[in-house]
Amino acid sequence: MPGTAPLDVLPLWALFLGLVLANLLADEGGFRVGYFRARREHKEGDATVGAIVAAELGLLAFLLAFSFNLAASRFDARRHTLVDEANAIGTTCLRAAMLPEAQGGPVRQLLRDYADMRLAPTRGAPIDEALRRSEEIHQKLWAEAVVAAEHDPRSLPTSLFIQSLNNMIDMHATRVLAVLRSRLPLPVWTILIAVSLLSFFTMGYQAGLTRASRSPAVVVLALTFGAVIWLIANLDRPGEGFLRVNQEPMIDVRRMMNTAP
């Protein structure tokens, strides 16, 4: 599934490695600047710089928690919309059985094709093609509903079918919004990465200012922050990585369509 956000041009592994390397380079740059400043007679006190480092890391931790909460809530919304859409498709298929066979047979076949289209992107099909085909099926289904309504405008089964079909089409738009357009905004990513780089720069600056020996713990810290940001990106990207919405509800509905009379 192609990404719709600017950072999606980078694979998740490249994003992780880039963040780790960028943080380590920022730390090294800060160390060199601090080492140069330590030669001056008038320089900052260690306590002052230490307070700045603590404030930077505290702000970074807050932004990580904030971003993780946003990404997790969007991931949960995608999961709920999938269940709601699967239920809407299943209800529409069951109510189609109450239509006259002239409309009911073609409608049930169109619904089977529609369920296949909703599963196609998870199997490697282009998302744009699946969306285009889904909208074509919407038009065909609505045309069949119009014919059924014209045949018997006062029929309760026809009214129930039209109601469920309308709900199914609405759920299509809701799920497209949740999957493709409800992503972490670019300003959030920009500020998160910028604060991460500045935090490592100030840590390196403090080490250079005090001329302390370099600690391997900086590498561990860079890996840790990189892993957390990578996890946030994984939650924010539908269809990529190992955190994916389980498609079992839609698969169950498609299986039900095969066994329904």
Number of domains: 1
For the largest beta-sheet, the strand count, sense and barrel status come to: none
Helical fraction equals over 70%
Mean pLDDT: 88
- Class computed from helices, strands and strand pairing: mainly alpha
Task: Please compute the radius of gyration using only Cα atoms.
Answer: 27 Å
Q: Give the strand content.
A: under 5%
Number of strands: 0
- Shape field: rod-shaped
Task: Please give the alpha-carbon distance between the first and last residues.
Answer: 34 Å
Please trace the helix and strand order, writing H or E for each element: HHHHHHHH
Low-confidence stretches: none
The number of helical elements comes to 8
Kindly describe this structure.
- By secondary structure, the chain is an all-alpha fold.
- The protein has one domain (6-259).
- Helix content is 78%, strand content 0%.
- The model has no long low-confidence stretch (mean pLDDT 88).
Observed structural traits:
8 helices, 261 residues, 78% helix, rod-shaped, mainly alpha
Task: Note the topology.
Blueprint: H1 12-37, H2 46-96, H3 101-119, H4 127-151, H5 156-181, H6 186-209, H7 217-236, H8 248-259
In short:
By secondary structure, this protein is an all-alpha fold. It has one domain (6-259). The chain is built from eight helices and no strands.
